[in-house]
Amino acid sequence: MVDIDGAIGFVVAHGDQVERARLSWLRTGIAPPADVLARAELGQTAEGGWPAMWAADVASVDATCFRLAELDDLGALDRPAARKALRWLADRQRPDGTWEEDETLATVAPPWARPGDPEARLYLTASAGFWLCVSSEQPLPGEPDPNPYADAVSWATEAFRARLGEDGSWPSYLVAGWLGAGLLHRANMFYEAAQIQVILAERIPDMTPADVAWLAAALRRAGMSIEDWLLVAARKRLTETQRTDGGWPSDDGDRFDVHTTLTAIRALR
Q1: Number of Cβ atoms within 10 Å of the Cβ of 102
Q2: Cα 3–70–43 angle (5° rounding)?
Q3: Which of 175, 159, 28, 51 is nearest to 109 (CA)?
Q4: CA angle, corner 177, sides to 182 and 205, nearest 5?
Q5: pTM of the predicted model, to two decimals?
Q6: Strands, DSSP E only, in 33-137?
Q7: Cα 219 to the chain's mean position, in Å?
Q8: Is the pLDDT of residue 138 over 60?
Q9: Nearest to 130 by CA among 227, 209, 224, 259
Q10: How confident is the model at residue 136 (pLDDT cuts 50, 70, 90)?
Q11: Per-residue pLDDT reduced to its tens digit, 251-268
């Protein structure tokens, strides 16, 4: 069994103010103080996206999706900053339903976000489509359109589905698989989503704890049952990889261990 109390203790001991607020919202649903929310939203560009650490002051699709995930953990997707970011994402969608980073980032972007790379394009499409999809369930009061991103989500879902192989494989990074499966699940394309799940299940034993946590949190956010066989396998893997200090290691260095642990907590709620 996963030691949830140990995971909570790890975040309390090592997390910053925003990370502890994320923990509080995940556990209790209590809204964070205004100053914490403002801190979480820092750095947003006038257009609505957030730059990545490698992107100087140019807004990044990848970084904006990461920020939306953090804001989701604070119950803040209905705030103006998140809504502005979602509109920016929708406006960045290409005519074929996909997303790429700004061309000016081509020389500095990491492989998974490099403009012109088809693997990066499919990952960013799955990620942006995923966040537009799950955010559509929280319309602002008084909005004329209760689901303003429906077309963008539909185009993204079809763009992802069109690139699947007959066996459910996808020509991109592993993460694109579970984000794409979430998109397909929400679109009631259960057969295609299940094909991806079979492939992911085969990879679970060799996946890093950070990837397993992200997979499980995303698919739970997409509405999959906690009793789904892939999520059962993910919980088993998280049980096996939890450290004695209660946390899980990040793939991006020790300073992101709290983020990985919060992602696992979200997945295991």
Answers
A1: 15
A2: 145
A3: 51
A4: 110
A5: 0.95
A6: 50-51, 59-60
A7: 10
A8: no
A9: 224
A10: confident
A11: 999 999 999 999 999 999
